[in-house]
Amino acid sequence: MNILFDLDGTLTDSSDGITRCIQHALTELGHPAPPKEELFACIGPPLIHSFLNRLGVKEEKDALRAVAIYRERYTRIGCFENRLYPNIEEILEELKSAGHQLFVATAKPQPQVAPILDHFQIISFFSGIYGAHPDGRHTDKTELIASIIEREQIDPKNTVMIGDREYDMLGARNNRVGAIGANYGYGSAQELKKSGAQYLVENAGDIPACIAGLNLPL
């Protein structure tokens, strides 16, 4: 089976780095910076949407500047203010040893993804690493998953997406691949089910058993 993993909220708990970078960008623009707990909803959606729709940035040019400030700090510091969820390395080893092909599918900019996986020494488990283009393409999970299917020539009926937000589940549904909601990440069970999750896992350790028992009604 082909298994597509989201990164933030699925493989890693990146909340410290992401929220600190958002706070930094807002402060640099002269906006008030909400506390960490109020920024969890910004983990997963495209950053520019969060700045415009959730964080009080009114003009697109200012939102683009906020994204640039965020990314500068994230590349230097924020990407390492991060931790793997418990037992992720062992879980990936088990899945790969069982013959599954593993990929990363994240809306995070592509140049940021490999250094994070390398930092945590899990990059070798993945057959492909896919993120958003710096020009903004593939920030949408439907577009990103479609691109992975095309580039890797994989069968959607033998593919599953694992992620913690509605964007992951909608992307899976729109590409007719299986959808597993990571209910230990930043989205809620209601959000995941409403957007098309066929299964929920309460912690990362449940992923191998869920994969082994899949009977996806695609």
From TrEMBL:
GO terms for molecular function: protein tyrosine kinase activity. InterPro entries: HAD-like_hydrolase_sf (IPR050155), HAD-like_sf (IPR036412), HAD-SF_hydro_IA (IPR006439), HAD_2 (IPR041492), HAD_sf (IPR023214), PGP-like_dom2 (IPR023198). Gene3D superfamilies: HAD superfamily/HAD-like, Putative phosphatase, domain 2. It comes from the Bacteria. Coiled coil: none annotated. PANTHER family: 5'-NUCLEOTIDASE, PHOSPHOGLYCOLATE PHOSPHATASE. This is Related to indigoidine systhesis protein.
